[in-house]
Amino acid sequence: MNNWREWRKQRRSELMALRGALPENDYYCWNTAITESLKCGFPWLQKVAVGFCWPHRGEYDPRLMMDFILMHGGVVALPEVVGKHEPLKFRQWWREAPMKMGAYGIPVPDNTPLVSVEAMIIPMVGFDQRGFRLGYGSGYFDRTLVSILPQPVAIGVAFEIARLPDLHPQPHDVPMNFVVTEAGIYRTAQNGLVPVSPAECAKVNYPN
Length: 208
Prior knowledge:
- By secondary structure, the chain is α/β, with parallel strands linked by helices.
- It has five helices and 13 strands.
- It has one domain (4-202): NagB/RpiA/CoA transferase-like (Rossmann fold), CATH 3.40.50.
- The strands form three sheets. The chain has an eight-stranded mixed beta sheet with strand order 3-2-1-6-9-11-12-13. A three-stranded mixed beta sheet has the order 8-7-10, with helices on one face. A two-stranded antiparallel ribbon has the order 4-5.
- The termini are far apart.
- The mean pLDDT is 94.
């Protein structure tokens, strides 16, 4: 696809409009379902440093999941933009952490300790049948995932209304390892997204 940037721009606008028009009850129910799948399917998140994103423009709100991880002794961190074409850095977050306004008007921790994340819960504007993610177009997460060794486990989160047949991935695009929606958990495989039960997912002790 030669005009993939314009195509993605159009899909992004359409999907964000769909998400923005969600009834409040649907948003709450779908948000709760994703949180429960993360709790039950990924118990190992309680034992590693987890990067997440402050909810923005109707995205899945992961803060209750982060509270759950913190309650069980885990470490969570929010991304900080340090340069337009640089990977993100992650700073430790907790409910009482000092915050400041960061890039794009999104809150970030104010000079809390830097964290090396082993997993990321990444919001998706859209996603396709192969686990590729449509973001806001800046490429921060793709750059960040390939800059960290070993590469963190990437768990993309979105509502089912964001599913697309094909995002026409480019060489710089990095697929998610898992996609979690209100319908359940999907593992990325060679033949596309494969549904996996929370119990089955929980048996695998990622990222080890």
